[in-house]
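Supplementary Data S3. Sequence and structure tokens for construct A.
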Amino acid sequence: MLMKSIAVTVCVVVVSVVPAVKAFADKDVGPIKTQGKELVWAGCGVTKTAFMRELAQAYQKKTGVVIKLEGGGATRGIRDVQKNVINMGGACRARMEDDPSERYLDQIPVAWDAIVFIVHKDNPVNDISLSQVRDIFTGNITNWKQVGGSDEPIDLYVRASSLSGVDYVLRELVFNDYDKKFTPRAHVVASTSPAEEAVERTKTAFTATGSSSARRRDVKILNLAGVEPSVANIKKGDYMLFRPLYLITRVGESDPRILNFVKFATSSEGQEVIRATGSIPYTDAMSLMYPHFLHYVNAKSLGDGSGKRIVDGD
């Protein structure tokens, strides 16, 4: 009965999301009458680092509309749109429909990303298992020699908020527990960029981040259970920790500058801009939609991760 319910639900998701993406790409919202005025996008640091700068520049060249980019994380990208603080947001996690501060928003997928684990470029470790990841984040593994590295302490970096896009999805995909507590030994930073920067400069550092931004950093990206988080492996679903990256707008948005940007980002032209940065356009891997939904159902249903996982790479 549960799987039947899941199948019905995911059919609704597939039927609703695919036309939504196509509708934005195909819809002609008319000429832009406010060229040159600035829009503000804020949110997911992975999205910002990965392709938003190039996407905003291409849109400005095409339309004359300037998009100012700010960070602040996925939660800001969702909630500040609802509060009318910013024009558009970026999120690397799904909005929480049961939270009043995240309702009445459109969430448009534009790219695929994956949770990856990064270390300093001189760290001798090349591969890590899911069980080792869990043990590092919970404090059961504290030294690099426990995972085949040097006899040095592991400096783990995590985000301050459990609603951070990276750490929220990490809890979903690796722990099946959105409320999972990480070790108090971890270094706590505000967002993804400081965590990535810490790994660039600290030989003993370790953190989770998005593959799309990690590729643009001077770090080593670890294989997970023997699988490289390459573009090809993520697109095929062979690398298991994949997730969508979203644009966030208000339901019923009428500003033609915003509507045209969404249209541009989901068009073949905009998707090529994303592809050229080394990121994965959403339309390049539509087959990931169903397994991604199973990730979500798995985390919701199993809570603390006990029982059989739908996805496990140990």
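Construct B, processed identically:
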Amino acid sequence: MNRLILFLFITLIISCGKESSDSGSSSSTSSTSNDTQQNDSLSNESSGNNSSSDDSSGNNSSDTDNTNTSEKKVVFNSNIHNSLTAEWVEQYNIILDTLDKRIPVFANNYKDLDIYAWNSNTNKPYSSQIGDASGACICGNDQGRYMVLEIPEDEFTYKSMHRYSVIAHEFFHAYQMSISSNFNSGDFKIKWLSEGPAAVFESLYVQEHYDYNYFKYDQDRVDNEAITNPSIYESYDSGGDSNYSSSVFMTLALVKELVKLDHTESDAIRMIIKDFQEQNPGSANWKDVFKQVFSFSVDSFYSKLSSYQADINTVLPSEDLSLRVIFNN
């Protein structure tokens, strides 16, 4: 009897010890999966007349494993100068509200972004915050990163659609920063795959909401090198890309090639402007990610471009496309 009691007692101790070990392992796994490694960094947005530097503010951080799980949205702090017309301010608010529905920007890689907007007829009203920054960009200084929307006075005089489209363009970059830690940190700097999608997005927005074909009338200056030497548009130093016309052309040609593989036009656009970036391409692996997402190599695509004409009219998307369908929301 004593031996039986002793045997049962030892068995109980071993069983309790195993439960404790299993419980500890489960807790550790859960904790690890919820941890997010972050480091402060600055998006390297492309605007030739705007400088950028490392962000030391601590407001903008990069999730190195690109775990896009945040349920909180990025806070946009709008600083709108009174030099801008009431009509522009109204459209700015409408555009932001619409984009929040189509491409909500979640705080995966950064928490907030200050926006400074003014009419170019006013001399640098926010110089104490952003120095000499001008034009349109997401750029930064030693105080942090911010969005600049300097709207040229001529665009009001001649009612240029760019005064509105540029809002959608720069906010799309904010979206790219939220879904890709490598884009957010500046490690992904392939111009035609960064600016092409942003410029395509702004044109689709304008086409849908202003009934104006921005592709045809404002992104029509395609350089012949887009078909003869397309790799040059991987660099931000490349010329021949006025209003990103050549980058847009290459992006839309990629849409055409994906449609040939039986993707719908909407799906093809989403693959380029969303799915590719969500795979977090970086300087070292972007060509591998390209092939993974699109099923053919970058070099193969560049070769295909030689069969195109350097004319935006040959790659125009359907005019009835909607961002709601493209983003499934």
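The chain has a mean pLDDT of 84. The longest helix spans residues 2-34.
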